[in-house]
Specification:
heterodimer; A: mainly alpha; ABC transporter involved in vitamin B12 uptake, BtuC; 2 domains; two-stranded antiparallel ribbon; two-stranded antiparallel sheet; 72% helix; B: alpha/beta; Rossmann fold; five-stranded parallel β-sheet; 14 helices
Chain lengths: 350, 412
């Protein structure tokens, strides 16, 4: 199954392995070489973009577990990231916690807040659940802004560099290694979660929650577990974001960001491990591409009315999401699957 | 096809990232971050035009600074914090000598990365958090707290004729625009000899403040100070008029709302006599820098004429030019051309911190650096709306330095 022509697995362990062929191993080695030498040929700016992509991938993976696997719509993901970010900021800045402790606590605090806002999912779903998670976004941000003795309120709060065992991650290159490593761990975690017992239960709940309950799946437990895991990963992403930017205020976590994360998961492909990664990379690079195009258009075509290009960004993102929904609702992940299928059958792909 | 198109656009940045670096010309690079797309594009586009028009003027007519042309690197922040963080890294990578931002939001996102590397930045609109305590970020215009104090100073000197302390009621937007004023009054009300009788908040989307104003009215304030944007300010003043508070109470506004849009939204008769602080002169005023700015604006971006944001950003570019002129004169081009930490240090020490009384063609208050105070301009003017127009400018009113970091209630 899912192997190139002429390749077979002879035991269960090999059948379940993530890396099953020599090509897989070779590609992994190439990927590792590319990633670990990236700081040699990427500027700080591009390392910064890569760091942002890594952080966003973690958040998107969490959202994908929630929406893509378990079918629980959440429009408050940026709010849950904010919980993680502020937890790490308060713990490391004000209480002197080490980075790793702050990171883990961020995940748990965001997960616990996610649990609270996930409780309505037991009774409501779809648009109704979406509204409750929007409420989470607004309530969290309101609390951050007004609990100024702890969060710094509208002024904001500084966050020290991440450090592990005396090694301080000061520069973009070292931050890149840190963020990439944690991102890889999160991807592996999500991959294994999705193909295990929990993942299968999530998918059953997503496809038909009544049928799942009849089969003996505890809806309350699994829906809340999905919220916890999804928000835990959002908290981890928030914590890394806080250490990466070095300064937080609530304006970093807007409703627009929450919607953008959903767009990334949709474009990438819901309910797949590779989908959020592809979606995040595409959307984040699109943002950079538009940053190049807008001023270029204004200078190349001076006849364009002033301010016209200001709409290009929102228009392109809207267009990409709409077109993906219409033309490729299964997202980039499906294209990737088609490509792999063609590769597996090669040279008889027709 | 859609997939291919999306991928092509997404891969575009890589084309430039992988392109061979061209030989550096004899230029001084400056990063300019403005929100030309996104929710603040209406302001950001105008401010970008003004920034670039002024640099064009400096390069074309003044021959650059110290014989070297200024090369701006304008980038769109989308008014997005994450974008601002990546942009400031790019400015540093590309050897910019300093960078500018339009808004305090962009700068608050970018400042930590810049401060960590010692990369100097100048925010057009600023808030105390950017430079308290002072590091490598500077404010071009007085912040929202300064607006409040400038107005209060003006009121005490020119309007207040009563006995004892005048009663101030504050109506504040629930974001840094409002909280800047709150913090300034919190720090200096006693010293100014005023009494704060109420502090109310409103949202940017408010459509009625009758309830809060009814409470305020019962406290019989002498002054209603509003630190907000034009739309909510218009609502508050209209409501105050409906309740019979105004005329009667003196109304003062911070600069974020004190524009032509306020008059358009509220109606000229409603806002007649309202005071407001603003950090620049008005279009058409008789100051040395007005003619050239007007000429460039009408020639290159005529739609922006009479937009006050154009004046602030034009002035911002002139200040940048002055800083580079001072720095290149003292440190020399060879040091600056490297665009590294040593160059940034010289731009700050030999450029920004050498600014003394630079008048920016009279377009804004004199620009000076004072040790420990990263506000480059400490002066506001107080205007009054007369016959439906912003008019009747005061002298430049100085806003005193507040060391917010000394107060426990100040965050960070």
């Amino acid at each position: 199954m899912n192997l190139p022509c002429g390749t077979r697995n002879y035991d269960y362990a090999r059948d379940m392995a993530v890396l099953r062929t020599r090509t897989h191993w070779a590609l992994l080695v190439v990927l590792l070489v590319v990633v670990f030498t990236a700081p040699l040929y990427l500027s700080n700016y591009w390392l910064g973009v890569a760091n942002l992509i890594g952080i966003t991938i973690i958040a998107a993976i969490g959202l994908n577990i929630l929406i893509g696997y378990c079918g629980q719509l959440s429009i408050g993901h940026a709010g849950f990231m904010a919980v993680g970010a502020y937890t790490t900021a308060v713990l490391t800045n004000k209480l002197g916690f080490p980075f790793l402790a702050g990171l883990i606590c961020s995940g748990f605090s965001a997960g616990l807040i996610g649990l609270i806002f996930g409780i309505p999912s037991v009774r409501v779903k779809g648009f109704y659940l979406a509204i409750t998670t929007i409420a989470a976004q607004f309530i969290i941000i309101w609390i951050i802004n007004h609990w100024s003795s702890v969060t710094g309120g509208f002024v904001g709060i500084s966050v020290p560099y991440a450090s592990i065992g005396g090694i301080e991650f000061k520069h973009d290159a070292s931050q890149f290694y840190l963020i990439t490593s944690i991102t890889a761990v999160c991807i592996l975690f999500a991959k294994n979660l999705a193909r295990g017992r929990i993942g299968r239960a999530f998918i059953a709940v997503r496809d038909n929650d009544l049928a799942a309950e009849v089969m003996g799946i505890n809806l309350l437990y699994y829906k809340l577990l999905a919220f916890f895991i999804g928000c835990f990963l959002a908290g981890i992403a928030g914590s890394l974001f806080a250490h990466w930017t070095g300064f937080l205020n609530a304006e970093n976590f807007t409703l627009t960001d929450s919607i953008l994360y959903i767009g990334m998961v949709i474009v990438g492909g819901l309910g797949t491990t590779i989908g959020p990664i592809l979606g995040v990379v595409l959307i984040r690079l699109l943002q950079q591409g538009i940053m190049y195009i807008s001023p270029l258009l204004e200078s190349t075509f001076p006849a364009i009315p002033a301010g016209f290009t200001s709409g290009i960004g929102p228009m392109v993102f809207g267009l990409v999401i709409v077109l993906f929904l219409i033309l490729e609702p299964r997202g980039l992940a499906h294209r990737w699957t088609l490509f792999k299928a063609a590769y597996r059958l090669w040279p008889f792909s027709y | 096809m859609i997939l291919c198109l999306s991928l092509v656009v997404a891969m575009l940045p890589f084309a430039s990232a992988c392109a061979p670096k061209s030989q550096p010309a004899k230029v001084l690079k400056v990063g300019m971050m403005n929100p030309t797309t996104g929710p603040a594009a209406e302001k950001g586009s105008v401010m970008t035009h003004a920034n670039l028009d002024a640099i064009k003027y400096v390069n074309d007519e003044l021959g650059g600074v110290g014989g070297y042309l200024i090369e701006p690197l304008p980038l769109d922040s989308r008014y997005d914090a994450t974008q601002a963080v990546t942009i400031v890294k790019r400015f540093m990578d590309e050897g910019c000598l300093l960078f500018t931002t339009a808004s305090s939001k962009e700068m608050s996102a970018a400042m930590e990365s810049a401060n960590r590397e010692g990369f100097p930045g100048i925010a057009c609109f600023s808030s105390p958090v950017l430079y308290r305590p002072p590091m490598h970020i500077y404010g071009q215009t007085p912040d929202y707290g300064d607006d409040a104090l400038a107005f209060a100073n003006f009121y005490m000197k020119n309007i207040w004729k009563g006995q004892g302390k005048p009663k101030f009621a504050l109506h504040l937007l629930n974001n840094p625009t409002g909280y800047g004023a709150r913090d300034a009054f919190r720090a200096r009300a006693d010293e100014l000899g005023i009494e704060i009788v109420s502090t109310d908040e409103h949202a940017a989307t408010t459509i009625s403040e009758m309830e809060s104003l009814t409470r305020i009215k019962e406290k019989q304030p002498d002054v209603l100070f509003i630190s907000s944007t034009p739309a909510p300010t218009a609502v508050i003043i209209k409501n105050a008029k409906d309740l019979g508070m105004y005329p009667g109470v003196t109304i003062g506004c911070a600069h974020a709302s004190f524009t032509k849009k306020l008059i358009d939204l509220a109606g000229a008769d409603v806002v007649e006599g309202v005071y407001g602080a603003f950090p620049t002169v008005l279009w058409g005023e008789d100051v040395p820098g007005m003619a050239k700015m007007t000429e460039y604006c009408q020639k290159l971006h005529s739609d922006d004429y009479e937009n006050m944001d154009y004046i602030t950003s034009w002035a911002q570019s002139l200040i940048v030019a002055k800083i580079l002129e001072l720095a290149v004169g003292d440190a020399g081009y060879d040091v600056l051309s490297k665009g590294d930490m040593a160059a940034w240090r010289d731009v700050e020490a030999q450029g920004i911190q050498k600014l003394k009384g630079y008048d920016v063609g009279g377009l804004q208050g004199p620009v000076s650096y004072t040790a420990g105070d990263n506000r480059l301009t400490k002066y506001n003017r107080v205007y009054r709306i007369v016959d439906g127009k912003i008019a009747d400018p005061s002298e430049w009113v100085e806003a005193p330095l507040i060391k917010y970091e000394d107060f426990e209630w100040f965050g960070k």
